Amino acid sequence: MDRGLDRRGPEVAIKTPYSIILAALPLLFLGAFFFYPLASILLQGLMQDGHWDLSGPARLFSHRAYAGVIWFTTWQAALSTVLTLIIALPAAYVFARYRFAGRNLLLSLTAIPFVLPSVVVASAFQALLGSRGLVNAWLMDSFSLTRAPIALDHTIWFILMAHVFYNFTVIVRIVGSSWARLQPEISQAARMLGATPLRCFREVTLPLIMPSVLAASMLVFIFCFSSFGVILLLGGPRFSTIEVEIYRQAVHLFNLPMASALSLLQILLTLAFMGTYTALQRRTTVTLYPESRAVTERRVSTPRDMLIVGATCLFVLMLLGSPLAALLARSFQGPGGLTLDYYRNLSVNIGQSLFFIPPLKAMGYSLGFALSTLVMALAVGLPAAFTLSRASGPLGAVLDPILMLPLACSAVTLGFGFIIALDEPPLNLRTSVWLIPLAHTLVAYPFVVRSVLPSLKGIPNALKEAASMLGASPAMVFLKVVAPIVSRAVVVGAIFAFTISIGEFGATVFIARPDTPTMPLAIYRFLGQPGDLNYGQAMAMSSILMLVTAAGFLLLDRVRLDRGGGY
Amino acid sequence: MALLTVQDIGKSFGGRPVLEGVSFSLDEGGILCLLGPSGCGKTTLLRIIAGLERPDTGKVVFAGQDMAAVPPHLRAFGMMFQEYALFPHRDVSGNIAFGLRMQNLPGELVARRTREMIEMVGLSGYEHRNVGELSGGERQRVALARTLAPRPRLLLLDEPLGSLDRALRERLMLELKSILKTVSVTSVFVTHDQAEAFAVADSIALLMEGHVEQIDSPERIYRHPASATAARFIGLRNLIDGRIAPSGGIETEFGLIRTPVLPGDASGTVTILIQPDAARPCAPGDDEKAGGPVIQGTVVNMLFRGRGYTLEVRTIHGTNLLFDLAGPLPDLAVGGGVRLLVDPAGISVLGSGPSVY
């Protein structure tokens, strides 16, 4: 059988010394920079003075303040998810069912908020609706008010709005694609059997898209549950999710056992949610028949169609575009009108303190860290992808979750693990400049694997065998067959790694040394300072960061689209 | 009076006309087949009748009522879709009961009718099967039962046997015809397969490039196709040019063919069709007395078909013709000469326009 032949290749391959080195590289990296810090968190949380002590985790549930944090984390995530669903489902329908000019571009644009760093999103919402934001300034100006009429700073509404903004695209993409795959004939069959449009939706369409709605909701819930930057920057001191609490306990209160206990809870809950998501996601793929896109999309022809599509596009542009436009506008808006001051002063250290460095320097650090991360994420991710592509059977079943586990860990937990594990021998990196790229690599390399693996797996064995039969050595097979096919996917992975690193906040906030802050960190500090120049510079830096990330993402979308297949 | 009348239907998609001036009518209890190659607009026409698509021009009249303003769910038509479009989230009886539930019938009645339908299509014992687990033939039965359960006023079938393999198709074709006749439902049936159309339909509308080429009974379509295109589509290849002779009859490369049916074409050129089963090898000395034309030529190809042979003959005038001959044929061999006697009843003259039904 073909199957037997297919399996023979990988088994031989995994035993060669070359493949063992390939597999060892990512595993060693994970061992030192993921499992070791994780174990430190475990010990810190469950042991006290050398013996087991469960009082820390127990206090999580007995102590009112901690129970409150857990409760808040849960309900804000649930509420954010429900709001996102209500707002995004109609758009999912329109994108799934209609074909119109600009549809793909708009769909591409909806994903930009999702890839933006949390500090940028926070700045953008401040710029639009914050007390010093554009809308308030305009209202105060128009109606001669002395105080900002819209007071959303440090309220739950700000947090919810930012979460909807972030996750809108998750619902649109996941639910939209399953809706598009739904054969229109199925609901037409229901209509022909006498179902009114409403009944047809309730009894046929809704049950069929339900698995994908649940899966997408679960994903949004996970993102909101582990929300950190948005809560910290927009919520202010009043609101604390588990993630924010880990940060406060560790950095402000130096209560490491409590931070560890919270981290353990966060990790366990995230794993449970991810498990639920995987189970839900599996259900979305079974019931639907594969169907080509062109059949299910319909042209915008009647005035009613035009109204629906036009209103949706306008709404999406307003919802996702207005905060970003406001951010850009605000970065040019000085007290006395339009100005370039905020950009011009980026090279000046106005704080004059040790903790403030010129923003331009922070940008330089960010760039350096992002490039190092890119190289390291490829160095770890490519061997991991090759190993996973060859490992089948039980070996693959074990390796895959091990290598992808960092994806299930929040950046905050990773950063916290770094500060408690890597600041003393055997691995003392406390003063090392490499700490940040290492942490970013941990966050970014799973994306390299996820980009490259499908492309590697998609190469038919027969192709490599044909090359060998034509006289190519294994090295030539790799160079002339495998490398050209996966090169695009490698580029995608590299852009991912760069973009993730340049906007990373959760882990960086723990481990960055005061004199080498990254751009997101500098924005965070500037936003916390009074004075118009600080605020304006935060806006200017956020704008630059937004443009870099958005450009990276659009480039990525481009490279992926050009493939014309695959994923 | 006709139950269904389709009047002058036209439809175009993105400027490209798909249907033009299509008209026909169908009596109660009749089975009309829309036959045509893929892309001829037959599915679009069916969807217009169903109300799933709006025609640009023309109208659909059912039982004397213009259907333009009636949405699909109020038409009480049944439609069987090409890939069946079964509800993947409901089991066999859930699929069949759907239309009955939409009429808000009492549960007991729904259950009884569903059972009846399951029995009729021979799926007893399958009530709670997941439709994803069914074979193609079983799905087809569920789709048929689901469509017939609410007793539709008109049944529309879109390639109901299209996605099944050949052997199964033969069997289900017989079954489908007997079920349609048992419940005596007026039906419009779309297919690209002429064998299917011949077997099931009372009448056939031959649809080519968006217009009706011919509407006739299956026998007449086969024996007297209206045009060369129609003939070719239903698999008839033996088309020969001829001229109307002043003395009556038609002058061809095989000599004068006497035929009473003449179209009113002023130019005098006609196309004649020789049925593939109309020839037999000449026995010695029967040329003159048989009276039919004799075809002389060389055997180019000889395919054994079990019951007989398909013979490809290149005539002495250089035309290639195909004939189905009863076997055995010990005297014939590829490359050898052959003389075939044609039965005049198997020769017809193609009309130059669509015939009137």
Structural class of chain A: mainly alpha
**Hey, which two chains have the biggest interface?**
A-B, 23 and 28 residues
How far from one another are the termini of chain A?
Answer: 28 Å
The total strand number of chain A stands at: 8
Number of structural domains of chain B: 2
Helix and strand composition category of chain B? alpha+beta
CATH topology of the largest domain in chain A: MetI-like fold
What is the average of the pLDDT values of chain A?
Answer: 85
- Unreliable residue stretches of chain B: 352-357
Strand order of the largest sheet of chain B: 6-7-8-3-9-10
> Percent of residues of chain B in beta strands?
25-35%
Query: What's the CATH superfamily of the largest domain in chain B, by name?
Result: P-loop containing nucleotide triphosphate hydrolases
Distance between the termini of chain B: 15 Å
Shape of chain A from CA axes?
globular
Q: Count of DSSP helices of chain A?
A: 26
Oligomer: heterodimer
CATH H-level superfamily title of the largest domain in chain A: MetI-like
Largest sheet of chain A at a glance?
2 strands, antiparallel
Characterise the protein shown here:
The complex is a heterodimer of chains A (567) and B (357). Chain A has 26 helices and eight strands. Chain A has 567 residues and is mainly α. Chain A has two domains: 1-44 and 349-567, MetI-like (MetI-like fold); 68-333, MetI-like fold (Orthogonal Bundle). In chain A, the strands form four sheets. Chain A has a two-stranded antiparallel sheet. Chain A has a two-stranded parallel ribbon with strand order 3-4. In chain A, strands 5-6 form a two-stranded antiparallel ribbon. Chain A is globular, with a radius of gyration of 25 Å. Chain A starts with a helix and ends in a 5-residue tail after the last helix. In chain A, 45% of the residues are buried. Chain B has two domains: 4-230, 3-Layer(aba) Sandwich (Rossmann fold); 237-349, OB fold (Dihydrolipoamide Acetyltransferase, E2P) (Beta Barrel). A six-stranded mixed sheet of chain B has the order 6-7-8-3-9-10, sandwiched between helices. Chain B has a five-stranded antiparallel sheet with strand order 13-12-11-14-20, with no helix packed on it. Chain B has a five-stranded antiparallel sheet with strand order 15-19-16-17-18, with no helix packed on it. Chain B has ten helices and 20 strands. Residues 352-357 of chain B have low confidence and may be disordered. The radius of gyration of chain B is 24 Å and the shape is elongated. By secondary structure, chain B is an alpha+beta fold. The relative contact order of chain B is 0.12. The A-B interface holds A 183, 185-186, 188-197, 199-200, 203-204, 207-208, 287-289, 299 and B 14, 50, 52, 71-79, 81-83, 85-89, 98-99, 102-103, 132, 146-147, 150.
